[in-house]
Design goal:
Family: Belongs to the PC-esterase family. TBL subfamily.
Number of helices: 16
Radius of gyration: 22 Å
Low-confidence stretches: 1-11, 26-121
Bound molecules: 2-acetamido-2-deoxy-beta-D-glucopyranose
CATH topology of the largest domain: Rossmann fold
Membrane topology: Single-pass type II membrane protein
Main location: Golgi
Organism: Dioscorea zingiberensis
Oligomer: single chain
Strand order of the largest sheet: 4-5-6-3-9-12-14
Helix content: 25-40%
Distance between the termini: 38 Å
Subcellular location: Golgi apparatus membrane
Strand content: 15-25%
CATH class of the largest domain: Alpha Beta
């Protein structure tokens, strides 16, 4: 959006700025008095205000006190480091809580040395097509146990929710088998490697899911917080860092998440203004990705739910192209802007893959929302609790996120297409069961964990 077009008159501009400032001040006052106000803000907005969001805003903007993830507390305490300094780091194999008996088509699954070969065999598989099948071995970790990695705002087992049948399905791709996920086998395969997820709150869900999957949800004091190696440290006054990075010492595997809702480079237009707008460079990848790409072995990008007018205004993003404010009216339409950005980033990433041949790059497609009878702010809900009541199978060929699909086509960037398979799972959202759900607002955007993002990771891990 180009403000110049919308607000030609300086007078209007000034009054809008003043109004915005007054609103901001009031919001902050109310917030300070009653952090619970967070629960009056629809879930979709929470990530505008949230941690992650901080990095898209000047330091010291809205704090987000509504969530104290146990992750932060556990890992900032220093126990991990002391532990590591005091004795030889050890690793408790991340055996999933239950034993598996799922029929395997690959006997050599247990033979770690052969797993690489196994994954080559799977290469021709289209993971996006297939069906959900009931599997009593799921979920892969417990929503009660995985407190170290799982934010309480996403742990539906800690909420009022009573139905958990949605946890008991796995994805069966058509014509091939996903190797059963096993944490220690995965880490072995990822020895000395760094896996990086970059994106919005749905990307953060995928990150937390992966941490729980790899550890089997068990407490893992040996895991080292290495956020500082990636500049992921909490700024003074901020509640949380811009992302998290953890290392499993036995295999020297690093898994990290960086919050970037748009994947664009953001540049404050006025450094000294605490409520500055940002130049959102549609044609420049976010700085974190550019800076640290040479260190990554697997990178998974996503962007989707912030591409709407409300989010642009809340984040104070002004579109820039070629280093200048965008003047192309067609591109200013947000769906075109997302398409342009996704194509730009994939093109850039593809060019980088020549320099870093060890790198596997994925672009995850859009995670679907399931609001019915309204949107997040108009009483929309997702009350269905019966799994797969609208079908269990995906048989169509193309992706339901044609923007990402077309962007990766002809490049070495892989499509992590989870849109259609997740569309079948409208019962898997947080729904009306947020930790303190007294507001009647449903979250039909984020997923319960354990839940659907575990399957995204299973599909991802089958391809790395
Ligand atoms: C891989 O598996 C095959 C048969 O499944 C076996 O003959 C071979 O020795 C295994 N390779 C290694 C390196 O263990
Ligand atoms: C751990 O892995 C990183 C690559 O991610 C590598 O640079 C580093 O040398 C490894 N450290 C050890 C002790 O092997
Ligand atoms: C930048 O922000 C500061 C503080 O709000 C303000 O005083 C200054 O005039 C702004 N500069 C420009 C160029 O707008
Ligand atoms: C998306 O962008 C690409 C590259 O700029 C362009 O070729 C394509 O037509 C666009 N698709 C849509 C649906 O706008
Ligand atoms: C889907 O793709 C497969 C293989 O690429 C092809 O054989 C099949 O005809 C396609 N189906 C449809 C409905 O387009």
């Amino acid at each position: 959006m180009k403000r110049g077009i919308l607000y030609r008159s300086g007078g209007i501009k000034v009054s809008i700025v003043i109004t915005a400032f007054v609103c901001m001040t009031l919001t902050l006052l109310v917030w300070k008095k009653a952090p619970l106000v967070a629960f009056l803000i629809p879930p979709d907005r929470l990530d505008v205000l949230s941690p992650a969001t901080r990095m898209e805003k000047p330091v010291g903007s809205v704090k987000d006190e509504h969530e104290h993830s146990s992750t932060d507390r556990t890992l900032s305490s220093g126990t991990t480091l002391k532990h590591l300094n005091g004795e030889k780091p050890y690793y408790v194999p991340a055996v999933a809580p239950m034993t598996y008996s799922r029929e395997r088509s690959f006997e050599q699954q247990k033979d770690i040395k052969n797993v690489t070969k196994l994954h080559m065999v799977e290469k021709g598989c289209n993971y996006a097509k297939g069906k959900w099948v009931a599997d009593n071995k799921w979920p892969l970790y417990s929503g009660f146990e995985c407190k170290q990695w799982l934010s309480s705002m996403w742990a539906c087992r800690l909420m009022q929710r009573k139905d958990f049948s949605f946890e008991k399905f796995r994805w069966q791709p058509k014509g091939c088998e996903i190797p059963e996920f096993e944490g220690s086998e995965f880490l072995e395969r990822m020895r000395d490697k760094t896996i990086s997820l970059i994106g919005d709150s749905l990307g953060r869900q995928q990150f937390q899911s992966l941490m729980c999957m790899v550890t089997g949800g068990k407490g893992s004091p040996e895991v080292e917080n290495v956020g500082w190696e990636y500049g992921l440290v909490k700024a003074p006054g901020a509640l949380r860092p811009d992302g998290w990075a953890y290392r499993f010492p036995r295999t020297n595997t690093t898994i990290l998440f960086y919050w970037s809702a748009s994947l664009c480079e953001l540049e404050p237009l006025n450094q000294s203004d605490p409520v500055t707008n940002y130049a959102m460079h549609l044609d420049r990848p976010v700085t974190f990705l550019k800076r640290y790409l040479p260190r990554f072995h697997v990178v998974v990008l996503n962007t989707g739910h912030h591409w709407n007018r409300g989010k642009f205004q809340a984040n104070r993003w002004d579109m820039y192209v070629g280093g200048k404010p965008n003047s192309d009216k067609k591109l200013a339409e947000i769906s075109n802007a997302r398409n342009f950005t996704v194509h730009s980033i994939v093109k850039w990433l593809d060019s980088q893959l020549l320099k870093y041949p060890w790198l596997k790059a994925f672009f995850r497609t859009m995670s679907p929302r399931h609001f019915v009878n309204g949107d997040w702010n108009t009483g929309g809900s997702c009350d269905n609790t019966i799994p797969l009541s609208s079908g269990s199978e995906v048989s169509k060929n193309g992706s339901n996120d044609p923007v990402v699909e077309s962007a990766v086509k002809g490049t070495k960037v892989k499509l992590l297409d989870i849109t259609a398979l997740s569309e079948l799972r409208n019962e898997g959202h947080i729904s009306k069961y947020s930790i303190k759900s007294s507001t009647g607002i449903s979250d039909c955007l984020h997923w319960c964990l354990p839940g659907i993002p575990d399957t995204w990771n299973e599909i991802l891990c089958a391809q790395v």
